[in-house]
């Protein structure tokens, strides 16, 4: 019996370890696929297909559903909405079978997005409502807020102000204040809601709130929406000259490579601005591009609006036949999706949703009462002996397995912590030894060699009074000048080996002083920039950072053939980002990584528990160091 029990435990342990290895492999493949989504979407799709197959084989349910969901994301981004719908449907089916509520809700929410992109608004509303009902069970306020925000956007299309603002206020109610990016997007949507009903004061107020968050976050996507929203603000106010610069800034930030919807929206709006400014040729060019793209991706709403725009443009160009043709096409398309039946259907869906919420509360009370009755009946039944024995055996087995697993986990953590402490101690001893040796050499240079040179200079100076010839006196003065230069070099080397300014003034002033010396001595342009509020560190850690900067700049001066460089410190709450860039010729990273200088840099990076990222090309090199200040204070 003991032997059998041990075999069971061994089997369970082996199975768990194998599953963990498979899971890590799949997660790595999914990370690789995510990195390819923008640049190589087809390769990303192939990787997600493979991760789905492996996830199903290894019963990794989280990986299986995400592989389906992410394929839908990619097809949405590239405008293939039918393919996106197919994978979101598969996501929903899989999550229903595996009882994954979060995955099922995300499937419905993204399916709703797809229908909204296609202009099929009743279907979009229906799926948003399904996702909200599931998300409400999870109590995830951030995702509930986003869902209400999306639902509000659909009602915008029907100019239903009551429901639009009802769901926007719901979104604001659920939005966590710590989620700054999403809060800024929500403020933008609320501002757009007010602007549609000519409440410009409220609209501007919400746009400024969004802008204030964006300034702090410095997020390009948020800046895109800030510029677009202010452009829309002035466009609705018919201040077209003020609107155009904002839309031009938004155009520059829009990621046209993947976001086709955003591109189409901007092309349509900007064509309208050119139309209002009587620039019909530019308006016609953008409208034709928007029409072609709308048809390509099946965006019916954009196609309808663009057909009407083209009719107006040709009318202004005195081309009545073309104007009539485009207008007729717009009416035909309008009948297919902007019918009164759609509006009725959305109202019915809203009523159904509110009714179901009330019914749900009543049903939950009834279920609770019924459950109490079942529990009472169940408590009166006698438990069979075999059932009790089996249950106890399972509990004991799981308890023992869990105990051993936790104990092994704690041991592994202790071993890992010990290794890390030993490694840190080694690095600290190495760096301390190096700094002591630097101080010793600096002291010897300053007190020994520098003193000897000064004594030699003094002796030579006395020879001037010995009646030397003019030529000998000239040569003697040259020798004295050379000794002065050598003294200056010795002082510079001594200072670089152990800069006293770190102890007196701190890291920032030491680096600023170092840059000034580089510029004055090497005829080399080097700038030092600081962003954020300075956070003081221990002198040891500041010295380590100084040495890293010093080594990088030395490498630039020796090997890069650069004419200028830049050092940048960026403090962000608990993180410090250091960037060192040059305009040199770059280098081979594989060859340089074996050098002593690079190894010294990496040793100090490891000591700080920091990360170093190097990007090099024929146009120059950029070093980026990220330091978690919580680990080095």
TrEMBL record:
Keywords assigned by UniProt, alphabetized: ATP-binding, Coiled coil, Kinase, Membrane, Nucleotide-binding, Phosphoprotein, TPR repeat, Transferase, Transmembrane, Transmembrane helix, Two-component regulatory system
Coiled coil: 410-444
GO molecular function, one term: protein dimerization activity
Transmembrane intervals: 385-404
Gene Ontology CC terms, in alphabetical order: membrane
TPR repeats: 105-138, 224-257
Enzyme Commission code: 2.7.13.3
Pfam families documented for this protein: HATPase_c (PF02518), HisKA_3 (PF07730), TPR_12 (PF13424), TPR_8 (PF13181)
InterPro entries recorded: HATPase_C_sf, HATPase_dom, His_kinase_dom, Sensor_HK_TwoCompSys, Sig_transdc_His_kin_sub3_dim/P, TPR-like_helical_dom_sf, TPR_rpt
Histidine kinase domain sequence ranges: 444-631
Catalytic activity, reaction form: ATP + protein L-histidine = ADP + protein N-phospho-L-histidine
Protein name per its UniProtKB record: histidine kinase
Species the sequence originates in: Flavobacterium alvei
């Amino acid at each position: 019996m003991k032997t059998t029990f041990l075999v069971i435990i061994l089997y369970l342990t082996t199975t768990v370890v194998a599953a963990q290895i498979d899971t890590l492999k799949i997660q790595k493949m999914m990370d690789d696929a995510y990195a390819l989504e923008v640049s190589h979407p087809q390769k990303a799709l192939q990787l997600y297909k493979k991760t789905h197959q492996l996830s199903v084989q290894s019963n990794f349910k989280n990986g299986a559903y995400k592989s389906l969901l992410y394929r839908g994301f990619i097809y949405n981004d590239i405008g293939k909405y039918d393919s996106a719908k197919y994978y979101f449907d598969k996501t929903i089916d899989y999550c229903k079978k595996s009882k994954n509520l979060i995955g099922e809700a995300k499937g419905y929410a993204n399916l709703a997005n797809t229908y909204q992109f296609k202009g099929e608004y009743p279907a979009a509303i229906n799926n948003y409502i399904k996702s909200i009902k599931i998300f409400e069970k999870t109590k995830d306020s951030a995702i509930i807020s986003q869902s209400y925000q999306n639902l509000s956007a659909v009602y915008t299309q029907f100019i239903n102000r009551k429901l639009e603002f009802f769901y926007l206020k719901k979104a604001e109610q659920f939005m966590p204040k710590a989620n700054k990016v999403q809060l800024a997007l929500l403020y933008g949507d609320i501002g757009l809601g007010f602007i549609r009903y000519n409440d410009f004061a409220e609209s501007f107020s919400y746009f400024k709130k969004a802008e204030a968050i964006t300034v702090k976050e410095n997020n390009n996507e948020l800046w895109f929406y800030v510029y677009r929203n202010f452009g829309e603000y002035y466009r609705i106010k018919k201040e077209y000259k003020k609107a155009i610069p904002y839309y031009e800034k938004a155009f520059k930030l829009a990621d046209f490579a993947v976001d086709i919807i955003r591109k189409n929206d901007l092309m349509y709006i900007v064509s309208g601005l050119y139309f209002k400014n009587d620039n019909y040729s530019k308006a016609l060019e953008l409208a034709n591009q928007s029409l072609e793209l709308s048809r390509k991706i099946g965006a019916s709403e954009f196609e309808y609006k663009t057909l009407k725009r083209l009719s107006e443009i040709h009318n202004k160009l005195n081309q009545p036949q073309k104007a009539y043709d485009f207008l007729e096409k717009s009416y035909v398309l309008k009948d297919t999706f902007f019918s009164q039946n759609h509006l009725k259907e959305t109202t019915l869906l809203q009523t159904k949703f509110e009714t179901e919420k009330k019914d749900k509360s009543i049903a939950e009370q009834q279920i609770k009462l019924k459950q109490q009755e079942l529990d009472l009946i169940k408590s009166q039944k006698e438990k069979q002996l075999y059932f009790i024995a089996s249950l106890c055996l399972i509990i004991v087995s799981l308890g023992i397995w869990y105990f051993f697993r936790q104990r092994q986990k704690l041991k592994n953590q202790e071993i890992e912590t010990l290794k890390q402490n030993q490694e840190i101690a080694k690095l600290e001893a190495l760096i301390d030894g190096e700094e002591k040796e630097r101080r010793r050499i600096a002291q010897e240079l300053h007190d020994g060699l520098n003193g000897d040179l000064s004594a030699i200079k003094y002796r030579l100076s006395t020879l001037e009074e010995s009646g030397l010839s003019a030529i000998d006196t000239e040569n003697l003065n040259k020798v004295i000048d050379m000794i002065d230069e050598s003294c200056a070099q010795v002082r510079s080397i001594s200072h670089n080996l152990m800069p006293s300014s770190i102890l007196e003034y701190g890291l920032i002033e030491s680096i600023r002083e170092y840059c000034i010396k580089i510029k004055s001595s090497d005829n080399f342009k080097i700038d030092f920039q600081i962003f954020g509020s300075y956070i003081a560190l221990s002198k040891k850690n500041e010295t380590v950072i100084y040495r890293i900067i010093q080594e990088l700049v030395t490498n630039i001066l020796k090997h890069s053939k650069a004419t200028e460089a830049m050092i940048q410190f960026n403090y962000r709450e608990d993180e410090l980002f250091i960037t060192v860039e040059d305009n040199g010729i770059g280098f081979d990273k594989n060859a340089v990584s074996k050098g002593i200088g690079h190894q010294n840099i990496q040793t100090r990076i490891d000591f700080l528990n920091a990360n170093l990222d190097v990007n090099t090309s024929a146009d120059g090199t950029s070093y980026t160091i990220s330091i978690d200040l919580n680990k080095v204070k």
